[in-house]
Amino acid sequence: MARLQLKNVNKRWGSFIGVDNFNLDIADEEFLVLLGPSGCGKSTTMRMIAGLEDVTDGEIILGDRVVNDLEPKDRDISMVFQSYGLYPNLTVYENIRFPLRVRKVPKEKHDEMVMKAIHMTELEDFMHRRPAELSGGQRQRVALGRAIVRKPTVFLMDEPLSNLDAKLRVSTRAQIKNLQSKLKTTTVYVTHDQIEAMTLADRVVVMNAGKIQQVGTPTDIYDMPANTFVASFIGSPAMNLVEGALEGGTFTGEGIRVEGLPTGPSGNVTLGFRAEDAEIVDTGGQISAPMYSIELLGEASMITWRLGGALVSIKTNKEYRAEIGDVVQASIPASICHLFDTASGERIAL
Amino acid sequence: MSSKATRQPPTIRIMATSFLVIWLLVAAFPFLWTLWGSFKVEGDFFSKANWANALFGTLTQAETGGSFTGAGYEGAWVQEEFWRAALNTTIVCVFVVTVSLTCGTLGGYALARSTHRYAFWFLLFALMFRAMPPITLVSGYLLPFFEWNLWGHLYTTVIVLVAINQPFTLWMLHSFFKNIPKDLDESAMVDGCTRFQAFRHVIIPVMWPGVITTGLFSFLLAYNDFAVTTMLLSKENQTMIPKIASFLGTTQTKGNVMFAVSAVVSATAPLFVMVMFFQRQIVSGLTAGAVKG
């Protein structure tokens, strides 16, 4: 149970910058997700918290002590690895018991603690098997069980679901969420999957190229992306982004014209809106252009145009039919639009 | 049950089987011949009159009254005290294997986990030293060993053999360790181990096949070594291989050659037992390094 602070944390390898001036204050019991594309420094950040990677600069404060120079074992954390990191020569029971054994927890407590972790991860039927005899999902649960068997101050999870198949990922995700809310342990979770981030997190940290792009609740990040990177990373499909010019409250781009925007800013801007907010109309739409493709998603259809260099998609009802090349119109009211400065990518406050 | 598609044509099968049988005979023949001949007298095994004497033991019958005689073994083990050489070999092998495995596992692990570039160059240099014929090193050792009064002792030989074998053990163990995912050490360290505890409690148990295979190879190198042992050991400290060579060097005395033959059989037998005993570990060890899981 502890607050975890990162102050001006940097990680450099020679001239390569892995993590650039990372500042974050993680509250006790919070579920924090580090989200970003591969190579963005999210795993490095987590490994620095764990002590598996040295901090080049800055401080990591766990509870009330600076842990920069502590060995991983002295930081009182537990970690779930992407490849599970189970001990192949030990049974499930012994794997989960391992942290208790090396940390010299009194022997008579072991069985009770291990059995509790086994119940929480529903591994009763497999406890005498070795990791090689388990499926991927079961192995992942053993790794989880080993992490929760003692009460660490912080859980670290490094892409724990990425080796599982899609269906299992959904159920294990729910299990992780449930476990964390029961255990009330501060958790840092690394993923590149924005759906995992949205469903699990109390707060999401979006990272790119070693820098924090935005910190906020999943709703904040979805509704108010701080820049075009976040806008294009969050949501499925990602936010549509069209470059164009803003003049007197009117945005004009190739095949698109939106009126009623704020009159203050002007110049080159990027207009963003979400596929699910816009709708297809017969006349008077802000987009009017030949359709590029139509995809059936099951519950909806996705209509795509090519506007300038960008592909723009919106969702419509599943019965909608049109031929590729037909001119199709869509209504993009100013109320669903986000504006970003094209040069810097930063959000323009409306 | 093989389907038609995977079944081989009969000619191929016959050829494969006969090749295997011939190969087996060719490979096993010298051993079997020596084993059989070691129970004969010299006149039979090295018969100038008729090679078949070695098979039927004509002279053996004439000299000893039976088709088989243990005279060669008795001469080698009792008269020439071959047991002393066997004991020396045991001592040398035990120490060489222990020392080179201890240094090899620790060093191999460190090199496998090191992120520094010098680890690579270190291994490359190790390989270069391994490629050198041992005799080139030994000739250099002789003078200082005489001067410092180190020549002739078993422990000197152990040190030299370890030095010669270490590059190989390092290489082999290094590649075994490389195949063990780093996540394993890291989860152990997060779970509460120091680096050394992670090595001792988590990595080594997974490494057993690799350690046994490497240990066996370095055992064989020590066991079969001739160049180093023959140059660096005094007569009373000789191990088995130079001892056998010295039996052969004294062909003037009748019967001494048979001592050599019996000694060869005595020296080979433990190897068979050893390989049989460890065969499962060796197989898994040899393949473990081959394919990246």
From TrEMBL, chain A:
- The highest taxon in the source lineage is Bacteria
Q: Which InterPro entries match?
A: AAA+_ATPase, ABC_transporter-like_ATP-bd, ABC_transporter-like_CS, ABC_transpr_MalK-like, ABC_transpr_MalK/UgpC-like, Mo/tungstate-bd_C_term_dom, NA-bd_OB-fold, P-loop_NTPase
Q: Which Gene3D superfamilies match?
A: 2.40.50.100, Nucleic acid-binding proteins, P-loop containing nucleotide triphosphate hydrolases
Q: Which GO terms describe its cellular component?
A: ATP-binding cassette (ABC) transporter complex, substrate-binding subunit-containing
Which SMART domains does the UniProt entry name for this protein? AAA
| Signal peptide annotation | none
- Which GO annotations describe the biological process of this protein? carbohydrate transport
Task: Report the GO molecular function annotations.
Answer: ABC-type transporter activity; ATP binding; ATP hydrolysis activity
Locate the ABC transporter domain: which residues? 4-234
Entry's SUPFAM superfamilies?
A: MOP-like, P-loop containing nucleoside triphosphate hydrolases
Could you confirm whether the keyword Transport appears in this record?
yes
Q: Which CDD domains match?
A: ABC_MalK_N
- Record key words, sorted: ATP-binding, Cell membrane, Membrane, Nucleotide-binding, Translocase, Transport
Q: Does the keyword Translocase apply?
A: yes
**Similarity field:** Belongs to the ABC transporter superfamily.
Q: PANTHER family, from UniProt? A: MALTODEXTRIN IMPORT ATP-BINDING PROTEIN MSMX, TREHALOSE IMPORT ATP-BINDING PROTEIN SUGC
Q: What is this protein called?
A: Carbohydrate ABC transporter ATP-binding protein (CUT1 family)
What is the organism lineage in this UniProt record? Bacteria, Pseudomonadati, Pseudomonadota, Alphaproteobacteria, Rhodobacterales
TrEMBL record, chain B:
Write out the transmembrane intervals: 12-36, 85-111, 118-142, 154-177, 198-223, 257-278
Q: What is this protein called?
A: Carbohydrate ABC transporter membrane protein 2 (CUT1 family)
The cross-references to InterPro entries, in alphabetical order and at most eight, read: BP-dep_ABC_trans_perm (IPR050901), MetI-like (IPR000515), MetI-like_sf (IPR035906)
Which family is annotated?
A: Belongs to the binding-protein-dependent transport system permease family.
The organism sits in which domain of life? Answer: Bacteria
The subcellular localization recorded is: Cell membrane
The processes (GO biological process) annotated in the record are:
transmembrane transport
Q: Which PROSITE patterns match?
A: ABC_TM1
Lipid bilayer topology:
Multi-pass membrane protein
Where does the signal peptide begin and end?
none
A Pfam family annotated for this UniProt entry: BPD_transp_1
ABC transmembrane type-1 domain segment(s): 86-276
Could you tell me the keywords of this UniProt record? Cell membrane, Membrane, Transmembrane, Transmembrane helix, Transport
Q: Which organism is it from?
A: Litoreibacter halocynthiae
